[in-house]
Amino acid sequence: MKDNEENLKQSQSSEELKNEDQNLEKEDLNKNENESIKEEVDNDKDEIVNTEIEDLKDSLKRLQADFINYKNRTNRERQQSIELANESLILKILPIIDDLDRAIDSKEEKDEFSSGVELIRDNLLLSLKDFGLQEVDCSDKFDPNYHHAVITEDSDNGSDMILEVFQKGYILNNKCIRPAMVKVSK
Fold first, then answer.
1. Structure pTM?
2. Residues in CB range of 169: below 8 A, 6 or more apart
3. Residues 142-155: pLDDT tens digits?
4. CA-CA distance, 87 to 83, in Å (whole number)?
5. I need a labelling partner for 184 at 20 to 30 A (CA). Which of 25, 43, 142, 175 fits?
């Protein structure tokens, strides 16, 4: 009986050992599963974070491009408004220049006074040239973009040649703000 009891105890103890071994194996498997799940979760978190970072970078690039476009557009609009203001001011000054030209042309004798008027006109034109003003060239063929034909006349010089200038024309920054009034050959 003792032997039986001892055998029984040994078999129970061996079963307990087996159960313990199985429990340990299950714990190891659970640990491994938990670790692999943790790794997957960490990888998913990294992927989500990387995706969010890329989205934020794209958003920042778009925002920077929008800002650069805004800055360029406002600079262009500011420059256009300055040019428009210059154009309207210069258009008001042109009749004064025409009057100075007529005063210079009407004087038969050159004296100090007429030389002073001519100097004032030249300085005014030089100052306006700094803003992009230039006279329309009237030494060549008639161009409807820069010349306004007031009179046509038969001539031996050929057709569409400028014969006489009645009023000078002016160009401001490559835009004809006032065409020259001219006599043109037929």
1. 0.58
2. 135, 136, 138, 146, 147, 148, 176, 178, 179, 180, 181
3. 888 999 999 988 87
4. 6
5. 175
